[in-house]
Description:
Order of helices and strands: HH
Helix content: 55-70%
Structural class: mainly alpha
Largest sheet: none
Shape: globular
Number of strands: 0
Amino acid sequence: MSTYSKGQAWGALRKAWKGYRIAKVQGDKVRMKEYAERIKSLQSQLGLPQTHFDIQETNSEE
C-alpha cells in the first residue's frame, strides 16, 4: 500500500469513488471490487469509518 499525504489521500479517495460509480453503472463487478478495496484502504489511512460494499460476483456467462 502506498502512503499518501492527507491531501493526496483525499484526492485518491474522491477518484476511487468516481471509478466505483462508473464501474457500477457499467455493471463491471470486478472493477467495482477493485475500487471498493482501494476505497477501504484509503478510508483506513484517513481514519474514516469503513464503507460496507455488497458486491456479488457472478461468473455465469451463458
